[in-house]
Amino acid sequence: MELELRGITKRFPGVLANDSVDLTVRSGEILSLLGENGAGKTTLMNILYGLYSADEGSILIDGEEQHFEGPGDAIAAGIGMVHQHFMLVPVFTVTENVILGVEPTTGPGVLSMAEAKREVEEISTRYGLKVDPDAIVENIPVGVQQRVEIIKVLFREADVLVFDEPTAVLTPQEVEEFFGILRGLRDAGKAVIFITHKLREVLEISDRINVLRRGRVVGEADPATATSSQLAEMMVGRPVDLVVEKSDAIPGQPVLRVEDLVIVDERDHPAVRAVSFEVKAGEIVGIAGVQGNGQTELVEALTGMRTVLGGRVMLGADDVTDYSPRGMHRSGVAHVPEDRQRRGLVMSYTVAENLVLDSYYAEPFSRGVIMDWDAVDDNADTLVEQYDIRTPSVHVPTSNLSGGNQQKVIVAREFSRNVKLIIAAQPTRGLDVGSIEYIHERIVQQRDEGAAVLIVSTELDEVMALSDRLLVMYEGAIVAELDPKQVTNAEIGVYMAGGRS
Amino acid sequence: MTDHEQPSIDPSATTEPLDEGSTLFRDITGVGLDWRSALLVPVLAILTALVVSTVIIALTDLDALRMWGSDPAAAFDETWDTIFAAYKALFQGSFGSIRAISETLVGATPLILAGLSVAIGFRAGLFNIGTEGQMLVGGMCAILVGISFSAPLFIHLPLALLAGALGGAVWGGIPGLLRARTGAHEVITTIMLNFIALRLVDYFLKTSLFQAEGRDDPVSQTVATSARFPRLLGFLDRSDVRVTFGILFALAVAYGIYWLLYKSTIGYEFRAVGYNPDGAQYAGMNVAWLYVGVMAVAGAMGGLAGSDQILSVLHRGTPGFSAGLGFDAIALALLGRSHPAGVVAAGILFGALRSGGQQMQVATDLSIDLILVIQALIVIFIAAPALIRAIYRVKTGKSTEQLTRGWAA
Fold first, then answer.
1. I need a labelling partner for B93 at 20 to 30 A (CA). Which of A16, A193, A351, B79 fits?
2. Does this complex have an ipTM over 0.90?
3. Which range of residues forms the domain containing residue A61?
4. What is the pLDDT of residues A383-397, one digit of tens each?
5. CB-nearest partner of A38 from B8, B275, B405
6. pTM here?
7. Is there a contact between A369 and B399 if contact means CB atoms under 8 Å apart?
């Protein structure tokens, strides 16, 4: 079969999300849709899936025009979507999740679980998905949960499978397995649309590449001949430096010393197991690892948001273990939090208000309990200028800004005071290339001015590019200390998966 | 980033709210809406409620209903007269004379204070359903000061108000503390504390501490004149113009709350917790203690509302003297979009409905309960903003916060 999107245009208030996009995908090929966050990839796929209706343009299957009123119509037409965030019921088994909404019955209201299970097993073997139909979803790894999503789509007899940023949650090993599955689906005659912003993956897996920028298809590339830098340039619209420019670090005195730190999570399970490391002035230490291996808890403990069970945190000569967030802040720790919208910003507050979120209580922004809004505004005007925050005014709610500019608000606030230590978790997650470059530059600049920097990121490329020293975390422990200049992604991947080389 | 990029707006931020739950909260409470959206829904809700009430008035005129079959023209005239008479009485009873305006303000005063009590909670993301109980406890404290001694007015009245505010603050602070320490939801705890307050009042009114001499029923002694709010228009020397300086006090308190919310670090913290407790924690605020603080301030407002009931109007305590005003206050805070200026406007509207409703009841056959119907309809339409949007085919716009700087701006 052949799926064609013809002249799709979608407008949102103030934004042209899709601008007459043409796109074709056929059975037996993998089409990659490459673009930055906000380029319109997800909007386009939501139109294809019937979640939005296009303002102009049409969707054709084998030349026949389709009208999707909702996802139900799209599914009926053979389109399946694997979302970035899985839509699974954690306490259900694999089979129960797969049949949810299309339960096979033997009579009115009588479930036919045995038949469902047989079919799940059949799909699982045919496409090499290796899933136990009786496993409870919350007990299986993320990579396997993703396969459950794939089975769900196949169970509904999809011919076109759309994957929205599917590799974001996977380890390098899981990505390889996932690519194997994609090839299997292609060879079985399915059409696959792979949405991503990761250049390396696109070059590895695609049969064809379409690049989307600002809602428009700006080009098509052949993965056999295209290079990363060509694709990056198409994606961003100008030449892009893929490596972070930085000189060798000149480490000074240790600023942060973590000694045998033990932390438990909300359910009292050990999250960090006796971790020790140090970060010196003038160096960037990166912590790599698959999400959920204790990095979040570690960062929270180091920034005063979580109490520790044992061990010490030393800042210079001071013991700052279990300081409050404000205590850490006052001691000269800057924190770029992992979840910027939930932690780092009050989205309904204006840009100016957010720029004093952790310093509002002291001069010059307030005297006693009286806020000095003029000082707050002056501060905002200065920082917006200095950190190139694109906003129509400092008085608009921060939720109106793009992700990149929201992150710049946080970076501006945290870096603009005298800091000894910067702790940045996922500092560029979900940002466009321009913002990523900018934030990386600022981090390196802080290092060169003598700050100690700790970067925690699940994006391996990011920690590799930024770090002077690299630690790998697995199941709450630091399993390796590496020199990023002398290891390969594959080697780190082995450590991230808990193996030893 | 170089110059080629425009200030970009993230489509996901403008079209898809992050969280449906919080959007609903914003739509209903008005917290986080820009002022145009914040005004649009209440105005349309009042309008719609009046239209529906008009239909109800028409349907209550049984004579006219019987006539529709035989003589539609006369029936129409009859119905029209009924509706006209009702609204005329409603207006005359609320704004038609000095006495009417005075009664409107008498009703508005405790409502404004109680409305502030609920509104502060909304601004900080808390549902204070306990204003009724806070009014009772605060009112009892004010009575105690008012009956225990006599002193010059400028000492006695402030002391009575202070006692009322403190009593309410303690009563409101308890659910705050429970929330902070144990996570107990304030909706449940405040409702339960209402019941407790109600029965405590019954009990205390029969103790020698409060009970009027020679009475067997639960009625308190009368507070000293020096603890009462003086009549605002006392120079007119008319006993039916009851409005006191309480209304000016309530307006001053409303401004004080506005100042607290938008001009002080405390309000900055209250609102930050309301929008995003995780962000507030990150920013170094003590979220648990802020919950206690918010509820204490909200309770103090409730306590002042109860005190005003006593010191302006009743002058003594009877069982349930708060008379459900603490529950009306929830409706009022919603209508006032949880902003002090909105609460003042909504308080005056509710005061007017109350005062006009009495006139309406006297002048026509309509029950004053119709007023409760109107109030309830207003709240339903506000609580279901989607309904209003569907009826009037309007968009209430993006949810944004523009209320932060100017009074009512």
1. B79
2. no
3. 2-78+159-236
4. 999 998 988 889 999
5. B8
6. 0.81
7. no
